[in-house]
Automatic annotation (TrEMBL):
GO terms for molecular function: D-glucose transmembrane transporter activity; magnesium ion binding; squalene synthase [NAD(P)H] activity; tRNA guanylyltransferase activity. Catalyzes the condensation of 2 farnesyl pyrophosphate (FPP) moieties to form squalene. GO terms for cellular component: endoplasmic reticulum membrane. Belongs to the phytoene/squalene synthase family. Keywords: Transferase. Pathway: Terpene metabolism; lanosterol biosynthesis; lanosterol from farnesyl diphosphate: step 1/3. Residues 354-427 form the tRNAHis guanylyltransferase catalytic domain. Its cofactor is Mg(2+). This is Squalene synthase. PROSITE patterns: SQUALEN_PHYTOEN_SYN_1 (PS01044), SQUALEN_PHYTOEN_SYN_2 (PS01045). It comes from Zancudomyces culisetae. It catalyses: 2 (2E,6E)-farnesyl diphosphate + NADPH + H(+) = squalene + 2 diphosphate + NADP(+); 2 (2E,6E)-farnesyl diphosphate + NADH + H(+) = squalene + 2 diphosphate + NAD(+).
Amino acid sequence: MNPEEVVTSVLYLLRHASAEEKIQKLKCSSELIRCYQYLEQTSRSFAAVIQELHPELKDVICIYYLVLRGLDTVEDDMTLEIKYKKEVLETFYEKLYIRGWSFADSGPNEEDAPLLIEFDVVITEFLNLKKEYQDVIAKITREMGMGMSKYTTKKVNTVEDWNEYCHYVAGLVGIGLSQLFVASGLEPSGIEKLEALSNSMGLFLQKTNIIRDVFEDVIDDRRFWPIEVWSKHVNLVGDLINDKYLTQGVNCLNELCLNAIEHIPDVLDYLSQIHDRTIFSFCAIPQTMAIATITLCLNNPKVMSENVKIRKTEAIRVMKQKIAPTDAVFLKKLDILEKNVQLKTGPSMANSKYEYVRGFETFEAVLPMTFMVVRLDGQNFTKFSADHGFEKPNDIKALELMNFCAQRIMSKVSDIIFSYGQSDEYRYKTFSFDL
Ligand code: D61
Ligand code: MG
């Protein structure tokens, strides 16, 4: 871990009371405290961002998460008899209105089985929510249950199937969230109608997970990579994690990464429409993690032989983003401490002819979540095209050359997280991780 990451982790831990401390401080029913304990237990990535949400939405989203996590625990359970599983998935939304209902038939390896065994506490808190929130959660649960039931017997063959499966298990989550944001009054009406953008928010997260988890999933006989894609590269799905077919596996990996990356423009579009700061962080942080994860997976042979994950410190750095700009004092302290660490680690240049370079060390702060776009425009492209006999309007040689140049630039400038070409120019997006 480099010094900056040490600082980041320590300050993050200082700033963030342990989950248990936070939960105990909650002045609310024992059932709701139980729900927040289950949120911490069942979600590595969403628990922290949900608890930073505006008070009007925090409990609603916590219950929304637990209801769908309960449903997913039935879906992921490979020990349940198919007919029974389909029935439980398709009628799960009805159980939300049956006080005291719980589910004790989970298989022995289901990590989240305790949530279903004590699901009655989730139902109690669900029924405490305003009706408009209940209606959204119940409708999404019904549609997701139907979709999950369909894919218990249907394979993910085509890329369309992949999009449809990810819609059922993640796109619907985004569509429901947009409706809850508007129902809370924290977001103006409009975002709930942009279902395609909300859907892309879910698809990018789910596809990134499915791509990252291929090694574990193939080992556990779970099949989420579309057959239509991997069968172009290898004959058997097991070959994907077989060293002998590593090149083919990585080519398939890259094809799916590029497919997932196509959702990012929608994600940016969606984020640019969010007004409430807590909702913005809640939406943007998981997406930022996913961008960091897909960047890590792209062209990375390790994905085919182990479960790659972005470093915890990287994750904390992203989380740090949510420090409100008003916390300038805190930021100032953070800044100074960071500079001190740099100074301690870098040779001191004070009172030397290099004193002036310190001017370049000053930390240029940009607003959190700022995307910088660098546009590289082709110069004398017409002459260049003529010299190389490029066909108009698109010549594959020219496009491949531009892609090749872009890959070289991205391999050199690691701050660039995303780039795309259009006509004779390329745009490179960098992202302000640090303030
Ligand atoms: C803005 C902010 C958060 C968003 C969003 C927009 C749009 C979609 C999502 C979150 C959902 C992203 C899902 C990605 C992680 N994949 C899973 O959890 C898979 O299960 C999917 C079915 C259950 C969904 C539960 C869920 C997840 C996140 C939420 C939420 C509900 C409600 C509110 C906020 C976030 C995966 O499960 C892995 C596991 O079992 O641990 C699977 O089984 O494929
Ligand atoms: Mg699942």
